[in-house]
Write a structure and sequence with these properties.
The protein is mostly helical and 486 residues long. It is built from 21 helices and no strands. Helix content is 72%, strand content 0%.
Length: 486
């Protein structure tokens, strides 16, 4: 819990924010649009009718970035059989997204200083460039391989806006009773795009040569459907299609994507944020801000690593193919996306209850992950693990943990406000992307027996429950909206 000193310091800072010269800027802005004084609520005029179009555009970009980021991982076996990639290439392709995400300080500053239009245009330029590099025709395998690696790196550099711009957009465009919904749509579409990518191999370029689910070395079976060159041709057509769609979206954003709404939808959206030096100092000196960031990053990172290795985590007698695991992973993400919309609307209706809702979801995720671990290892005698059981477990887990992701980001914003959303959410997303590689690194080097990953998932969710219980319930942004609207 927060100490008495911290509570007094928080109250003093809130009072300084309400009485600072910045408030005069906010007062003047609101007086221009809503009449004299600040005793007027934003009202219907503050709800821009094009806010949903702006959100749909960002969601489309995030989906395409997630799809392009994971384009090669589902077809790595096919590319190996065709001689395009070796084991080193596959390992690099799996990590270019995290490497490219290191550009987040620049893009976060671009979001906070220049607004969403400029940062989205810059990210779409990177995404278009990366997709274009992958499509340059060449007959030399070495040159083609380097073009693909370069393209994936550039695509990864567009990740910060795809994963972290949702809270910024929801604050700038949506009133407080729609903010969590906007964050949920803006954030989770990137993960939905990444999950959809893992269905491309069985649906579009499957050669009938998937490895046995327990062959960690990934040895190929003899192809029974098509030849490697034919499969690569289908992959190339898919890459061309992705490039065309990305270019079309780029053109749409150039033609119409407003930088900001005509009227701020809430008081906090019109309040200037801290400068970057002051914001960084605040983050470094506020340990509870880091608790909120880690509560978002760690369970999410472990769950992504768990879903990527799902077909390896089952008992030896359970035969689950890569296709089955892909469908189960997609079901988890889709259940989480659908559930997050319901949970986000619930959180918007019952404002100030984020901590209780997140606590319930993380507790549910902990129970489901423990149940999965015990049942798939055969430790529950009366429960036989099969495909339907796997699908049900993933749906329940996704409905709990993935639904909590946008709410956890909202907690990060509330705990760090008035730190700019681009900086706080970009830092949280960067930690989660980097942390995904930690369990995968151990899995590929020392701890090749994969059972520990399921227990790690359960432990991360349980630690999340403990962290939520200890995290002080502070709503700095919501507090500002309430005080200046009454």
């Amino acid at each position: 819990m927060m100490s008495r000193y911290e509570e007094e310091e928080e109250a003093d800072e809130r009072e300084r924010l309400l009485s600072s010269p910045r408030r005069g800027w906010t007062r003047a802005l609101w007086a221009d649009e809503t009449g004299p004084g600040l005793g007027v609520s934003p009202g219907p005029r503050a709800r821009s009718p094009c806010r949903w179009l702006v959100l749909a555009t960002l969601a489309a970009f995030a989906f395409l970035q997630g799809l392009a980021r994971n384009a090669w991982l589902p077809v790595q076996d096919t590319a190996r059989a065709a001689g395009l990639f070796n084991d080193t290439d596959v390992a690099l392709l799996a990590n270019w997204g995290a490497v490219g995400f290191s550009a987040f300080p620049f893009l976060a500053a671009l979001v906070d200083k220049r607004g969403l239009r400029v940062s989205l245009l810059a990210s779409l330029f990177l995404l278009t460039t990366g997709c274009g590099l992958r499509c340059i025709p060449t007959d030399m395998n070495d040159a083609r391989r380097w073009l693909i690696h370069s393209g994936q790196l550039v695509i990864g550099m567009a990740g910060p806006v795809a994963l972290a711009a949702g809270p910024y957009l929801s604050t700038a465009w949506f009133p407080q009773d729609e903010r969590t919904t906007g964050t949920a749509v803006g954030v989770l579409t990137s993960y939905l795009g990444g999950a959809c990518a893992f269905l491309l191999e069985p649906l579009l370029v499957h050669m009938g040569s998937a490895p046995h689910p327990h062959d960690i070395d990934g040895q190929m079976r003899p192809p029974t459907l098509g030849t490697p060159s034919e499969a690569l041709h289908r992959i190339q057509l898919l890459l061309y299609a992705e490039l065309v769609v990305v270019m079309a979206l780029f053109l749409v954003v150039i033609l119409y994507f407003p930088a900001h709404p005509p009227v701020p939808p809430s008081i906090s959206s019109a309040t200037p944020r801290l400068g970057y030096c002051e914001a960084i100092f605040r983050l470094l000196t506020r340990p509870w801000s880091w608790v909120a960031i880690l509560l978002y990053a760690v369970p999410l990172a472990v769950s992504i690593a768990w879903l990527k290795q799902l077909n390896l985590l089952l008992a030896p007698g359970v035969v689950i193919t890569k296709t089955d695991a892909g469908w189960a992973s997609l079901a988890a993400v889709m259940a989480g996306c659908a559930g997050s919309l319901v949970v986000a609307r619930f959180a918007d209706y019952f404002t100030g209850q984020l901590k209780v809702i997140v606590l319930t979801l993380l507790a549910g995720a902990s129970i489901v992950s423990v149940w999965f671990t015990l049942s798939c290892l055969g430790l529950i005698p009366f429960l036989h693990f099969y495909k339907g059981n796997l699908l049900g477990t993933c749906v329940l887990f996704g409905a709990c943990l993935v639904s909590a992701v946008p709410l956890l980001l909202e907690l990060v914003v509330e705990a760090t406000f008035p730190v700019p959303e681009g900086l706080s959410c970009g830092l949280a997303a960067f930690i989660s992307v980097v942390a995904v590689g930690v369990p995968l690194f151990f899995l590929r080097t020392w701890l090749t027996e994969v059972t520990w990953l399921s227990w790690c998932l359960a432990g991360s969710c349980a630690c999340g429950v403990l962290g939520i219980l200890l995290l002080p319930e502070t709503y700095n942004r919501l507090h500002l909206d309430v005080f200046l609207s009454v």
